[in-house]
Amino acid sequence: MTSKPILPGPGAIEPINLKDALEERYLSYALSTIMGRALPDVRDGLKPVHRRILYAMRELGLSPDAAYKKCARVVGDVIGKYHPHGDQAVYDALVRLAQDFAQRYPLVDGQGNFGNIDGDNAAAYRYTEARLSETAIRLLEGIDEETVDFRPTFNGEEQEPVVLPASFPNLLANGSSGIAVGMATNIPPHNVEELCNALLHLIKHPNATIEKLVEFIPGPDFPTGGVLVEPRESIIEAYKTGRGGFRLRAKWHREDTGRGTYQVVVTEIPYQVPKSKLVERLAELLQEKKIPLVGDIRDESTEEVRLVIEPKSRTVDPVVMMESLFRVSELEIRFGLNMNVLSHGQIPNVLSLRDVLWQWLEHRKEVLVRRSQFRLRKIEHRLEVLDGYLIAYLNIDEVIRIIRFEDEPKQKLISRFGLTEVQAEAILNLRLRALSKLEEIEIKAEHDRLSKERRELQQLLASEDMQWQKIAEEVRETREAYSKKTELGRRRTSFAEPPEIEVDLEQVMVEKEPITVILSEKGWIRALKGHLDDLSKLDFKQGDRLKRAVKAMTTDKLLVFATNGKFYTLSGNELPGGRGHGEPIRLMIDLEESHDVLELFVHQPGRKLLVASTSGHGFVVPEDEVIASTRKGRQVLNVSEPDEAKVCVPAQGDMVATVGDNRKMLIFPLSEVNEMARGKGVILQRIKDGKLADVRVFNKADGLTWVDAAGRTFTLSANDLADWIGQRAQAGKVVPKGFPRSNRFGPAFG
Questions:
Q1: N or C: which end of the chain has fewer CB within 10 A?
Q2: Residue 589 lies in a domain
Q3: Do 628 and 590 fall into the same domain?
Q4: Residue 474: how many CA atoms within 13 Å on its side-chain side?
Q5: Across-strand partners of 696?
Q6: Catalytic choice (55, 68, 125, 127)
């Protein structure tokens, strides 16, 4: 019994390796996806489906001044003639081209429900209508003048353009996104006036740097606005490599609601974030208590976006509240940049900003040349016809006789008057009514006008400089049409520097109230409500007295400097209350029994401090560097026994005054003192047989001030201090007359 063949028909079955077959077929699929679906062409910024939609609408006569037609009609033409895919896929692409919140410069003018920023879908295509926008006409301009190549459609019955002429820089103006096999693209929209300015600069300076181009194109311009908070350096780097991203935030402002209360109103949300999903997410976060600063959120949007966010209490800082929301919600997004496009419609590659602009200019140059050549051919044909008309006009009777009586009038005309085939055909095709228009003056006038245009076109085709001038004129015309002064052209996305604040949710929930922090000589600390000026009635334990009284807020950080050279950090809201004598500070910080607290003061970000030890060594340290995150504190000034830390004063001024317990004072420039985060420091003053007593930083122009034991203030001018001014590390001279016996200048912190 013979087995039946696996496949019907004659011929042997050809065996093939499954791996090779899969590789070949998958590669074909991948290339088809990359070139036919996912990546836009760098020249017109379109994918095939969008290009086919625009071309089909043009063929339907849907110009901006024509009547709207049903989208069903457009979709039918697209899938029937050009794009053999699903109708819903084509309609979705059409809808997106019409959405002013999705497209920076919409290519389709839609009528009906085309969806909204909430994320709602458009109505079915049988209900909506569409026509081309003015921007789409710019993409199609010149398509009938042999400016681009055409290819057969999928069934060979029609012709479709390979690319559009694109007198509008659509790729960067409207952006694009897509996912292919093994690669993706994501290009944000930009402002056309800025693009045109960069293009004009690039025409004049073809080797322009990305840094220079970014001066013209500072960043994307999203249709939904928002605030771009990406640093300029990373924007430049993204445009250089074609890969990167942009941080985009919602735009908001504060509205006062009376009696000290307020609400925050969000008027612009990040691009491609559905508003309804955003509100839903914020409501979830509120319910889960992940945004403790927020009291309520509601959507009051009409056609304009208006999200109202109410704070938990009137004391919440709106900037801090919004920073906390930006971190956990899509009120801030990172929009990726991946300029992966098709060069010349064939080569997928990631281009820099300059490459994208330049390849568009090269396309415009090719379109200009092809358009000029097409026009030149038309002119030459017309001139040839006009020459024939002139001969016919001058010999009209003979021409009529030949046409009436000769058997082969065409050949007779050619031989009788030396005409070309084109001229003879044109004369034979003349209607009788046209004979009245055949006036010699009109023929010669048109001939002269066309001859002049031909010379200009020949000059244009022969000169590359003239071609670039013509392209620059077109770019300037586009810039004028899409000027920032127009509603469509105005920049919508603004730029801002994000506030440099660290959001500690536990900290910001603290009620901001004034307090006076009291520290006793024996190390007991407490916080009294309000800012107290009269401290005479304060009560202390027997044998104890006031050491420091600091006016602060409950939201402040307090810095403690101890004789071991360490800084400790306390929170104003965590200090014990004013009832009783407070608590020992050693319960809050790990301070050895052998050491004591030197200074207590409110932390001021950005300030600098001068710290010094009894040995006379010291240095300047940024106050932000001394914040301690644990009870153990932060070692800043290194000291070795028997020396210990002695002084901590603000480094605000240009001169340093030091005094030793030997009552010798030295004054020298602050610039001679090193700035560091930790160490022993440099010698400030050499004190023979003694120790450093005090230090003060002051402005030379203001003079040196000290407070005596009776609380009186004395100030010596720069001239009076001349004898004590020297260089760092000198011994100094005996203190001025009237200097306190305590060898101290007085309180360092106000």
A1: N
A2: yes
A3: no
A4: 20
A5: 657
A6: 127
Q: Position of tokens 């036919």?
A: 36
The pLDDT confidence band at residue 111, using thresholds 50, 70 and 90, is: very high
- CATH (domain of 107): 3.90.199.10
State the residue range of the domain holding 128. 46-165
Distance in angstroms (rounded) separating the CA atoms of residues 147 and 132: 20
Summarize pLDDT for 517-558 with one digit per residue, the tens. Answer: 999 988 899 998 888 888 777 888 888 888 888 999 888 899
- 527 and 437 in one domain? no
On whether both 71 and 144 belong to a single domain, the answer is: yes
For residue 655 the two structure tokens come to 């001169």
Q: Is residue 21 part of a domain?
A: no
Give the model's pLDDT for residue 288: 85
Within a domain: 39: no
Task: Give the chain's domain count.
Answer: 5
Q: Which of 595, 625, 651 is the last residue of a domain?
A: 595
pLDDT interval class at 504 (50, 70, 90): low
CB count within 10 Å of CB 305 equals: 22
Query: 374 and 314 in one domain?
Result: no
**Helix ranges (DSSP H) in 395-527:** 396-405, 409-417, 421-428, 440-462, 464-481, 505-508
The Cα 231–Cα 497 span in angstroms is 8
Same domain for 619 and 723, yes or no, is yes
Q: Is residue 562 in a domain?
A: yes
Rounded Cα–Cα distance for residues 392 and 410 (Å): 13
Instruction: Give catalytic status of residue 239 as yes or no.
Output: no
Give whole-number Cα distances, 35 to 40, 141, 179, 326, in Å. 8, 24, 11, 37
Average the pLDDT over 562-590 and give the result: 88
Provide the percentage of residues in the chain whose pLDDT is more than 90: 63
**725 pLDDT more than 70:** yes
User: Which residues, listed in sequence order, are joined to residue 551 by a DSSP beta bridge?
Assistant: 516
Q: How far is CA 19 from CA 16, 22, 23, 24, in A?
A: 9, 5, 6, 9
Kindly report the CATH number assigned to the domain that includes residue 725.
Answer: 2.120.10.90
3-class secondary-structure state, position 657: strand
| Whether residue 56 sits in one domain with residue 150 | yes
Handedness of CA 454, 457, 459, 462 (dihedral sign): negative
- Is the CA virtual torsion 557, 558, 559, 560 positive or negative? negative
Work out the percent of the chain whose per-residue pLDDT is above 70: 96
Q: Phi-psi bin for 259: left (phi > 0), alpha (psi -120 to 50), beta?
A: left
